[in-house]
What does this fold into?
Amino acid sequence: MTQEELFKKLIAHCKEYGFIFPSSEIYDGLGAVYDYGQNGVELKNNIKRYWWDSMVKLHENIVGIDAAIFMHPKTWEASGHVAAFNDPLIDNKDSKKRYRADVLIEEWMAKQDEKIQKECDKARKRFGEAFDEAQYRATSPRVLEIAAKRDAVHARFVEALDKNDLEGLKQIILDCEIVCPISGTRNWTDVRQFNLMFSTQMGSTAEGANTIYLRPETAQGIFVNFLNVQKTGRMKLPFGIAQIGKAFRNEIVARQFIFRMREFEQMEMQFFVQPGTEMQWWNEWKNTRMAWHRALGFGDNMYRFHDHDKLAHYANAATDIEFNFPFGFKEVEGIHSRTDFDLGRHQEYSGKKIQYFDPERGESYVPYVVETSIGVDRMFLQIMSAAYCEEKLENGEERVVLRIPACLAPTKVAVMPLVKKDGLPELARQIIDDLKFDYTVAYDEKDSIGKRYRRQDAVGTPFCVTVDHDSLETGTVTIRFRDTMEQQRVAIADLEKIIGEAVSFRPLYKKIKA
Ligand code: ATP
It folds into this structure.
């Protein structure tokens, strides 16, 4: 199965099993907007819990807030979003499709890297054991030629972005002979800037109405509350403020399912530090956040850092954590050192002093900020694409199983009476009544046990508990494990402990803290 086929299957699976539906589907959907279904919302809530607790519970010096989506319009002038939250866009005149010029060029560069990798893989086959990839990359004329071309384009790209040189970007697209994936032609318009913020009116009448924006990031709600939290919480630097909430961007190139949406959710933590210590904290948070991802057990090689070519107007260091999605390595999280830009600008635009009195230094100053910013939806896609698995079983049957880490699984346990009579449903209900205070539990009595197991595998339920006639006599049940399909006879009284240990976030948190 190609990665593209896998991705299509994943999208279909998300819909068929109640994870994600297109928004307002009966009206043919709304572009790049999605709804989470009955299983999706549980997974999403568990992701948010994993993040929130790893920030707020595990760190004495991080607290949370929940700011409003609407903010005073001046916020976005101060933050730079009104002037500079733009994407460079280009249209193909034949297909009438619109693209981000920077993304087209980045994709072209990624293709050159793939070409180089293919050359290396071919050479490895030829040379066998003795193959030295580093040496081959440094000496093969073919590899050097591709790399030189790529590096030259990369240098031009960085310069054009830095200077906001739209013509320069177009020239790169023409020189690299980049074609529209739909029409296959190079018939491009000029590159233009497009602001990504959605606006609306506040107030009951059009006259006197104020244009306000739907926030394009949650971070500003944290910055404008810096003093409120610092003072009421008597917080001392370094300290962090965490927040989970919706953000909105009028993305032009909305592709790849929930990877790029117009309404999405962010989990952001702004960490305020003494000026001069920001690089140390930036490195620290890079490591902590990478450990958070890796603790899920999908394989360390599925993640990499990608340092930014162009730093945003507010940053002095920035990196992304990228995950190997079915469509390649792409950003899930950004870790940015934002200097004193945001607090400084809010101080300037509001005319209010936004400073911290440092008792150690005996002076007041605007703190520096290191932020970690991750999309809930991209995290969701990461988990689904890593967890989705089609397996051939020994008896020749196939099963689709979602190997979602047990602590994140939408349903923790499904309880099933072997037959719908003889008091088995009643005992199953009793077991559920005991477990449901702590875990999401499902009851299923329809179809054969085999079919019921398949249904639970497909939504990632880590445990199935089967109640049979022996259960009535012995107080034992069969517990079946999703990943190994192994079955064990256990006492009903032990279920709570077995499940509790397996679905705990504890081992993950210990890995992050190690
Ligand atoms: P990209 O380069 O992919 O547009 P970005 O660098 O603009 O992303 P940030 O502004 O750093 O993204 O936002 C932080 C995080 O928010 C991203 O790492 C991503 O997980 C998430 N995010 C941003 N835009 C979207 C979107 N349109 N849909 C879903 N998630 C998003």
The chain has a mean pLDDT of 94. The pocket of adenosine-5'-triphosphate is lined by residues 217, 249, 251, 260-261, 264, 266, 331-334, 373-375, 377-378 (CB under 6 Å). The first strand starts at residue 20 and ends at 22. The first helix runs from residue 3 to 16.
